[in-house]
Amino acid sequence: MTLITSPNIAQADEFYAELLAAHNGLSDAQSHALNAQLVLILANHVGDPNTLKEALTLARQGFDTPP
Amino acid sequence: MPYDYAPFPYTAPAGLTEPEPRQRVVIVGAGPIGLAMALELAQHGVSSVVLDDNNVVSVGSRAICWSKRSLEILDRLGVGARITDKGVTWQVGRTFHRAAEVFCFDLLPEDGHKMPAFVNLQQYYVEQFLVEACQANPLVDLRFMNRVTAVTQNGFTTVEIETPDGAYTLESEYLLACDGAKSPLRQMLGLEFDGELFEERFLIADIEMQGDFPSERRFWFEPEFHSGQSALFHKQPDNIYRIDLQLGWDADPEAERQPEVVVPRIEKVVGHSDFRLDWVSVYSFQCRRLARFVHDRVIFVGDSAHVVSPFGARGGNGGLQDVDNLGWKLTAVLDGTAQPGLLDSYDRERTFGADENIRNSTRATRFMTPADGVERLFRNQVLALASKADFARPMINSGRLSKPCVYPTQAPDDSRLPEMTRPGAVAQDAPVGNGWLMDELGRRFVLLCLGSDTPEVSGIDVIKFDPTQMLRARYLGTADRAIYLIRPDQVIAARWVDADAGMIETALSAARQ
Ligand SMILES: Cc1cc2nc3c(=O)[nH]c(=O)nc-3n(C[C@H](O)[C@H](O)[C@H](O)COP(=O)(O)OP(=O)(O)OC[C@H]3O[C@@H](n4cnc5c(N)ncnc54)[C@H](O)[C@@H]3O)c2cc1C
């Protein structure tokens, strides 16, 4: 496991607020676009293919089981 | 000047009046693949009969981009110089989003190769040169207006053939189906052709105009001069230019082909009306392949075995790599120097190659024609990011241009030697003496010794060079000597820093299985 899943953001509440603020004034479609860019930017920063695969797997967890 | 589609001569085949002897190889289809196949076999001393239902080259321009690897193969077949002399050489591709350039690639940034990265030349010229080489070759019996209508096999193959003068049959040890994407032979054998159709239509136009355009590939996403999703522009010889315009799935192919619709579209692309339409068609594209290419004594080669969308030029170029792979193997089986099992390695290696081509072509086509929803979202955001962050630029996929695959192999290797020449890869060219390394390799197994003593191995040609700087970079890496075993198709079979005769003999016999 190379993906960090334990808390790793020093000021998590701060980041969460900034994430929401980044979407201020955007339509839903624009928010989706921003999120897509953010995913691509962060993925490029991570770079390592195994870490990225683990992130994709973790994100996908729970979506395949019916609610 | 429009190309002159002079018909090739038809002569009534001998088989109409009396049964002909069984042939070693019958090739069905005189497209680029069937013609190259006949020349390849002839180089190995194997005669063949080539049957084609038609008597002209490919009408309208289909393939235009011939890769470095294809040029090396065609050079070995004797038509390399004609193609590079006539064609337009290029290696740089530019991709635009609207009016801004967002990505640029250089396919051959280093020198020291006999062949350029790409040559653009209309398929009809390539076929014409190949036909002329076949006609001049006593081992090739090229028969136009000979349409295959039925096939059976039982330890050998029999085809029924229709000609303007009636029908006859022809037997052969092996039958090579080079009969194109719609392959009647595939249908006669009842074989499935699995894969994906892209729900998109493309206008493909060749126009003649005067102009001084650079020899580059140009691709636009959401161009300002065309309301569709993408456009592609290529230079060809004779002042001919290829323009591909994405039209959308709802476009009516018949209406879109009409000059009164096409001309205004092209005017917007080139900015004037001083051009002549040379050829126009509307295509949709597919990526499919046969599950197996070898069906006992019927072997599928080229488009009959696999088709791809053209973004990446992997169709004809992929087919020429099939020819390269099959020629020496079939020869060895026919000559009895290898078991028929060697043909399984054609199947294994070329289905691997086809999968790589299909994967690349599919990804490019999906990038151009994203499905509604999240696929389009990510596509558009990659394009949007490209203007503000470098990393997104190479993610823009307008086609990853044809390169030979590296065949998977367990053959002997040494990690000190460079990755690009690992076993399974095609040998890298380099200048040697007054010529080129590629001219020394191929047609037979050779042992390439660089800075090393020559082990005594019987029945194999040894070639030796003092390592130049380029040979070092491409073949030695951090080592100061190496021995490479290279197959007749110029693929590296095995390599060592030091090897004795026994090790080489073992690798040689493994490569022949
Ligand atoms: C728009 C477009 C652009 C392309 N661009 C490129 C490119 O840039 N680079 C590239 O490498 N590839 C490109 N391709 C793909 C390329 O054209 C094909 O891969 C190539 O033509 C395949 O050659 P082939 O010999 O296998 O088949 P074909 O060229 O289709 O030849 C098959 C031959 O078999 C004959 N035949 C069929 N049935 C019978 C029968 N029953 N009896 C006797 N003869 C028969 C046909 O008449 C024909 O001559 C492009 C294709 C298209 C459509």
Overview in brief:
The complex is a heterodimer of chains A (67) and B (513). Helix content of chain A is 63%, strand content 0%.
Description:
The complex is a heterodimer of chains A (about 70) and B (about 525). With about 70 residues, chain A is mostly helical. Chain A is about 65% helix and about 0% strand. Chain A has helices at about 10-20, 30-45, 50-60. Chain A is globular, with a radius of gyration of 14 Å. Chain B is an alpha+beta fold and about 525 residues long. Among the domains of chain B are: about 15-90 and about 120-195 and about 290-350, FAD/NAD(P)-binding domain (3-Layer(bba) Sandwich), CATH 3.50.50; about 420-510, Glutaredoxin (3-Layer(aba) Sandwich), CATH 3.40.30.120. Chain B contains 13 helices and 27 strands. Chain B has helices at about 30-45, 70-75, 80-85, 125-135, 185-190, 255, 260-270, 315-335, 340-370, 375-385, 435-440, 470-475, 500-510; strands at about 25-30, 50, 65, 90, 90-95, 100-105, 120, 140-145, 145-155, 155-165, 165-175, 195, 200-210, 215-220, 230-235, 240-245, 275-285, 285-290, 295, 300, 305, 430, 435, 445-450, 460-465, 480-485, 490-495. In chain B, helix 2 packs across helix 3 (about 80-85) and helix 2 (about 70-75) runs parallel beside helix 8. Chain B is globular, with a radius of gyration of 24 Å. The N and C termini of chain B lie far apart (about 50 Å). The interface of A and B includes residues 32, 33, 40 and 41 of A. Flavin-adenine dinucleotide binds next to helix 1, strand 9 and helix 8 of chain B. The site of flavin-adenine dinucleotide (FAD) has 34 residues of chain B, from helix 1, strand 9 and helix 8.
